[in-house]
Amino acid sequence: MAERGADVGVYAISVVAQLVGTGPQNIRLYERKGLLTPDRTAGGTRQYSDTDLVVLRRISELLDEGLNLAGVAKVLELEAANARLRAELKRSGAR
Fold this sequence. Notes:
By secondary structure, the protein is mostly helical.
């Protein structure tokens, strides 16, 4: 059996809500705000990946620290840019 990647959507929204400790309506709001983009089945059902779970947990942490959704979006954007730059440095052999 082939291993699935962390980016492959396998979880339903109800399962993700329970794993993360929030309601499905909050998860849908985060999607509308562009904070995450789950996979969709051919019928349009959301399917969340392990990577989505990490993002949702990070969103929860940032909200608990007092950020609003605009602040959360900016932090996630900056963290993603930082990760891309680190990967580029690693590929280029720079320290």
